[in-house]
Write a structure and sequence with these properties.
Length: 120
């Protein structure tokens, strides 16, 4: 499982894992690749980022700014989040674990269920 990864970095890691598996006689299907993904969707891109940044400020001790979240999370409109998830899948992700990066996780789960899941 990996966390806070951009699609290009995941593509490079996945390729390296495939090389290592092949060297040991395995195939790409032998190793699932899970991504733990900060997620916040809202019909308003600005609202999604504002909520995600507020939650990030509460919980983060990592060296990642709220601005960096735009590049490592599925944050924005449902369409933007679905596009980011598709890029991760194209880069080798086989499983996505959603981290609800929201000050109101129950509402965020509703938004993901209503708007994002139908796009995946």
């Amino acid at each position: 499982m990996t966390y806070n990864v951009q699609p290009e970095a995941l593509r490079l890691r996945s390729a390296r894992l495939a090389e290592l598996r092949a060297a040991q006689g395995g195939s790409a299907e032998d190793q699932p690749v899970a991504v733990f993904l900060n997620t916040n969707v809202h019909p308003s891109e600005q609202q999604a980022y504002a909520d995600a940044a507020a939650k990030w400020a509460e919980q983060s001790t990592r060296n990642v700014s709220a601005d960096d979240l735009r590049h490592i999370g599925a944050i924005g409109t449902p369409g933007q989040a679905a596009e980011f998830i598709a890029e991760l899948a194209d880069a080798g992700a086989t499983h996505i674990v959603f981290e609800l990066l929201s000050t109101d996780p129950r509402r965020q789960l509703e938004l993901i269920s209503e708007y994002l899941l139908p796009l995946l």
